[in-house]
Amino acid sequence: MLLERIYDEDLAQASYLIGCQATGEALVVDPRRDIRQYLELAAHHGMRITVVAETHIHADFLSGTRELAAATGATLYVSGEGGEDWAYGFDAELLREGDTIALGNITVSARHTPGHTPEHLSYLVTDGAFTDEPGYYLTGDFVFSGDVGRPDLLDEAAGAQDTRFAGAKDLFASLKEAFLTLPDHVQVYPGHGAGSACGKALGALPSTTVGYERKFAWWATYLANNDEQGFIDELLEGQPDAHAYFARMKRQNKVGPALLGERSAPRSFTADELARGLSDGTLALVDTRPVDQVHAGTVPGALSVPSLGKAATHIGWAYDPEADDAGLVVLAEDAQAAAEYGDHFVRVGVDGLVGYTPTLEGLPASIPQTVAPAELDAFLAEHDSAVLVDVRNRTEHSEGHVPGSRQLNAGKVLFYQDELPAKDAGPLVTYCQSGVRNAVAAAALRRTGYDVVELEGSYAAWSAWNTGQDTAQNTTTVQNETSGAAR
After folding, report:
1. What does the pLDDT look like over 436-470, one tens digit per residue?
2. How many CA atoms lie within 13 A of 45 on its CB side?
3. Could you tell me which residue ranges the Rhodanese domain spans (predicted)?
4. Of the ranges 22-31, 199-208, 306-315, 352-361, which one carries the lowest mean pLDDT score?
5. Are 31 and 57 in the same domain?
6. Count of domains in the chain?
């Protein structure tokens, strides 16, 4: 048996290729939409992808199951569990508790593991060439290394009301009945790693075992003591903010993501073409340079995606394809580099990349307004209508923030403008922890018409400056007291 993990660092998302080397058949679970890597991996191992499946209706990325099935002719499987409200809206074979997929010598058994979502499936894998007992468990968003899938995303991202409590109860039952009943040796391969918003304490290890989680996971004691309420209370406490684009992912994954098919290479735009498109609103520039270079000067209204490594995440924060039809032009050295950004963008359903420009020469320029921590108080005094906005997670905000700031996550600012002052009410002064998330959020808000001032170095710089001020004040006080005692 072959088992390969395909991991997307951008979205902290894992998909898996399982292959029977005897027959050359392969199954892919939870693929993303840029499917080239799966095709190349299967070809590398001399296999053909005959089955594609997913664990649940995802919220954090746009599923590639339909895309991969269409490209390979593979049979597509999705969950038939969860009731009518969780039925998929596209043609696929349905799997329910105990159903199996035969893959040469390999048997894949579906287990219904609700909690993160009502329809969630996990897949127990048995390598029949060696044993008739399962040895591997693809748990999707059910069990992670060191954590379990959060049950509150339907409330946070999909507009449901108080489903988190029923979900938490279901998760407790799933752990009890569909996880801890398995032998300790079973290898666990989760759908996410550290950095995902699908849990609050995900580990970075690519896999774990039933026995390890039984002994060391934070939830293990609650299960051992049959303490359902204690489990629920700790599970729901301190979950991170859900990004606003999650709601769109849920909707699109349920009805079936649009098929991309063969994608054309991004074309080069001249400065004149790009300037005209920016002027009439048919194009939007994505500035891919680091934050400090953007602050030195960029194109007015440009979006900021400071690195390829988080391009899917950041474009999901900064651009809403359901409300914005401007074609995206990325700052990239060539078509190949631009296409890499396109691969990341389609993972969150942003399919509108049309081209690239290798330079900003010949385009209008502006310098984003910033304010240094030492000048913040004076700026706020001068602009009494200014509003401080902390774009970090609510957990970060609760641990410490600039006094007077309100919290609105960078992944929500574009979509929750009703929680911000009117655009003509005065400037917004925004910050995150170090400045990267803030640059993305600030650029998105500027493009919609807000007057945004970024706090230089964000909270880390402000905190260091404030600590320095306190130290200097304490030193002066000690010096004065010493001088007075000497007199």
Report:
1. 999 999 999 999 999 999 999 999 999 999 987 76
2. 23
3. 382-471
4. 199-208
5. yes
6. 3
